[in-house]
Design brief:
The protein contains 13 helices and 14 strands. By secondary structure, it is α/β, with parallel strands linked by helices. The strands form 4 sheets. A 4-stranded mixed beta sheet has the order 2-1-3-4, covered by helices on one side. It has a 4-stranded parallel beta sheet with strand order 6-5-7-8. α6 packs parallel to α9.
């Protein structure tokens, strides 16, 4: 009679273990997914543990005979496999929430921040919040971009605000129309852009605003003038206006510099550009450039072939020797219709070109050949930034040729 009673009890008790295990796994999964062990996950695990202990206590005698059955061994294997699968699923959920890692398989990395943006976001040391004053459903493309910034650094956050629902907050930022976007960090604010269905939030605008928000001053780029260089205004081949506009979008301030009237490069110069001089620089001007290069500085030279600039001695100190040869590239003739278009796919190990990878650079208007001479002197060093392809060669051009 007692054996029959035990068998009857076991008929129902054997299902109790499943309920207890399910509660334990549910509690563990809830805690991992939520990222915190609150009352609910702990209560589920405690309840499941109590039920499992009760099952063990009430089914002690039945377990012995039950475990001896062949069907029990097969069932035990199934239970172990099920529990293992539940544990694996719980771990996958935990790792997915705790370590959010995305892989961009698109050819042009469309859903990946540029190296410049990553560097700017990684430098954020204080909380920065982006406010988007826009009514309605947030744009999917904008949210994807903002999520990329947020995942890069926890200091960055964003919030969509309906100006009509929160007029006080909109007034605090001085919002004048729907779609205005602002950055805020402490007591500093920076206007980013005004977005609309045709003009969405761009990575460039956001990165530039982050730089401006966290900088005490905007970096300055001076363009040398007085020797026939490219002008800062106007249009056409003799103007650098497009480059100036691009620099403005990157938060740089561009100004002209004439060393004949101001014989010293200003102290606030971040980069000095000498773009296509047609006449030789005066010795005093070259001396001012040499003094400028002794301090932390940047100098960009864009020199035309068959033009005497007076910069040979200055370049020699850096191991660079110019020649009157122009680069002739057969690949340029095939791709751009002219052998005077140099195609570059090889880059030296230098911070300027380190992120170029295998990208293609085109150099138009008869690029000048230059040699890199290794020098023994200490302090000044030049690095090879770009190399033309193996088929490229140097050729001479008559002064009166086009």
């Amino acid at each position: 009679m007692s054996m029959k009673l035990v068998a009857t009890h076991w008929k129902y008790l054997k299902y109790l273990i499943w309920f207890g295990l399910a509660l334990i796994v549910a509690g563990i999964t809830a805690g991992w997914v939520a990222g915190s062990w609150g009352i609910a996950p702990i209560a589920l695990m405690i309840a499941g543990g109590v039920i499992v202990l009760a099952w063990l206590a009430m089914s002690g005698q039945a377990i012995g005979s039950f475990l001896g059955q062949r069907s029990t061994q097969a069932g035990t294997n199934a239970v172990i496999a099920t529990i293992a699968m539940l544990v694996i699923l719980g771990l996958v959920n935990f790792l997915g929430v705790r370590y959010d890692k995305r892989v961009d398989f698109t050819e042009n990395q469309l859903f990946t921040l540029s190296p410049q943006s990553i560097e700017v976001v990684d430098r954020l040391e204080q909380p920065v919040k982006l406010w988007i004053f826009e009514a309605g459903t947030p744009n999917t493309q904008d949210r994807e971009l903002l999520e990329n910034f947020r995942r890069q650094n926890d200091q960055f956050s964003y919030e969509y605000v309906d100006p009509q629902a929160q007029p006080g907050l909109a007034q605090r930022f001085g919002v004048q129309s729907f779609g205005e976007v602002y950055l805020e960090s402490g007591d500093r604010r920076e206007f980013v852009a005004t977005i609309n269905p045709q003009q969405r939030l761009s990575e460039r605008n956001l990165t530039t605003a982050l730089v401006q928000l966290n900088s005490d001053r905007q970096p300055k780029v001076y363009f040398l003038q007085g020797h026939g260089e490219k002008t800062l205004d106007g249009s056409g081949n003799e103007s650098a206006s497009q480059a100036i506009a691009q620099l403005g979008e990157e938060s740089f301030v561009a100004e002209p510099l004439n060393l004949a009237t101001s014989p010293k490069v200003p102290d606030d110069t971040n980069v000095l550009v000498i773009a296509g001089p047609k006449r030789e620089l005066l010795p005093a001007e070259v001396s001012a450039l040499q003094d400028y290069l002794k301090r932390k500085s940047g100098l960009m030279l864009m020199l035309d072939p068959l033009t005497e600039t007076g910069l040979n001695d200055l370049l020699a100190n850096w191991g660079v020797e110019l020649s009157n040869l122009i680069v002739l590239d057969p690949n340029g003739a095939a791709a751009a219709g002219s052998p005077t278009v140099a195609i570059v796919t090889q880059y030296g190990d230098h911070p300027i070109t380190r992120e170029f990878g295998n990208g293609i650079s085109l150099f138009f208007e008869c690029p000048t050949a230059a040699n890199h001479r290794h020098r023994k002197r200490i302090g000044n060093a030049a690095a090879v930034h770009k190399r033309t392809n193996a088929g490229a060669s140097g050729g001479r051009r008559r002064p009166d040729s086009v």
